[in-house]
Write a structure and sequence with these properties.
This protein is α/β, with parallel strands linked by helices and 332 residues long. The strands form three sheets. It has a six-stranded mixed β-sheet with strand order 6-7-8-3-9-10, sandwiched between helices. Strands 2-1-4-5 form a four-stranded antiparallel β-sheet. Strands 12-13-11-14 form a four-stranded antiparallel β-sheet, with helices on one face. The N terminus is likely disordered.
């Protein structure tokens, strides 16, 4: 990995700890984020929102340090919030307000003067595709339009960093694509940093250059997406005809790690002999190998493999949203 000078970092934390009473929500996070699009991933309760609240200076940290755009998260929260736009997951819109008023008010709330806020509200509503709907009350909006309005609120003050919590949640294909394109444009043309949390791998892959994965309050992966594949074991994928479970047993009896999805079997490459062992097993169990090749995992698969390595019981990425919450007492 290349060394980066601290000036290029937009977010930096050192041994950042956040405890809610006795519960450790963030366990000494050391993170250096450069500008760009970063996916923040992790199961429910992993600590993503706590991390966002810490870097927004909204909650007091227990120990450790953090800087956002060079400002201290402990003492300069106001300055930080004037440079970060936050699009929450929950419905933060007032259904009785028009989109224009809603967006303008969110600007005024962070100290913009009314004339400037109004001018910017028109601009950002056009940017998020709501130009024609700007005089409609948000209570009449579809989910896609509500998400776009929330994005406009987050962009009103032209922030340098945009934090989006589950921005594509509940969107149909068309609105989802528009949201992803808008976020990507914000990074590429607007030259802004986007932190996007989510659990739909395709969405993260479309917008982000790198991912940070948080699990039980710790960073377990921080990598550029194209480098992620190197973090998982190399596998050979075969497609077999006849007796695929016999084939699986035969491979396992030779000590190979196997993942099987019907007739598709993926075998971890242990040594140069792995291919000849696979061929021997095919003969032994009387199956035909119809196809054999190196398996190239997609982000979803890489993710599941990483979770598997961590011992987390996750069968598909939507499970990431339903793992246990510790619950208990609410602390600030
Ligand atoms: P995520 O955003 O990844 O779902 P959170 O940051 O919301 O995770 O939560 C991290 C952990 O801290 C969870 O175990 C959660 O139950 C706990 N937690 C979050 N907020 C509070 C709070 N205000 N009081 C007590 N525990 C909390």
């Amino acid at each position: 990995m290349t060394d980066i000078s601290n000036d290029e970092l937009v977010i930096e934390t050192t041994e950042l700890v956040k405890m809610y009473g006795p519960h450790v929500a963030l366990e000494g996070l050391n993170l250096k984020l450069e500008s760009g699009a970063i996916g923040i991933l992790g199961p429910n309760g992993a600590g993503k929102s706590t991390f966002f609240k810490c870097i927004l200076g909204l909650i007091t940290t227990t120990s450790g340090q953090g800087k956002v755009l060079g400002y201290d998260i402990k003492t300069q929260g106001d300055l930080i919030r004037s440079k970060i736009g936050y699009m929450p997951e929950y419905d933060s819109l007032d259904p009785g307000l028009t989109a224009l008023d809603q967006v303008r008010y969110s600007g005024e709330l962070i100290g913009m003067n009314p004339a400037h806020a109004t001018q910017r509200a028109h601009e950002v509503l056009e940017y998020v595709g709501l130009k024609d709907q700007r005089y409609r009350k948000t209570g009449t909006f579809s989910t896609g339009m509500k998400q776009a309005a929330k994005l406009a609120c987050a962009l009103i003050h032209d922030p340098e960093i945009l934090i989006c919590d589950e921005p594509t949640n509940g969107l149909d294909q068309r609105s989802r694509q528009f949201m992803l394109d808008t976020l990507r444009n914000t990074v590429e043309q607007g030259n802004r940093t986007v932190l996007m949390s989510g659990h739909v791998m395709d969405d993260i892959q479309e917008v982000c250059d790198s991912i940070v994965m948080i699990y039980k309050g710790k960073i377990v992966v921080h990598s550029r997406i194209e480098e992620l594949a190197r973090q998982v074991d190399e596998e050979i994928e075969i497609s077999v005809w006849g007796g695929s479970s016999n084939m699986q047993n035969s491979l396992e009896s030779r000590g190979l790690s196997v993942r099987r999805l019907g007739r598709i079997i993926r075998i971890k490459v242990e040594s140069e002999d792995t291919i000849s062992i696979i061929l021997e097993c095919a003969v032994e169990s009387g199956v035909q190998i119809r196809r054999m090749g190196e398996y190239e995992p997609d982000l979803e698969d890489i993710f599941l493999l990483i979770m598997d390595k961590l011992g987390a019981e996750v069968k598909k990425t939507s499970d990431l949203m339903t793992s246990e919450h510790t619950g208990g007492t609410n602390y600030e």
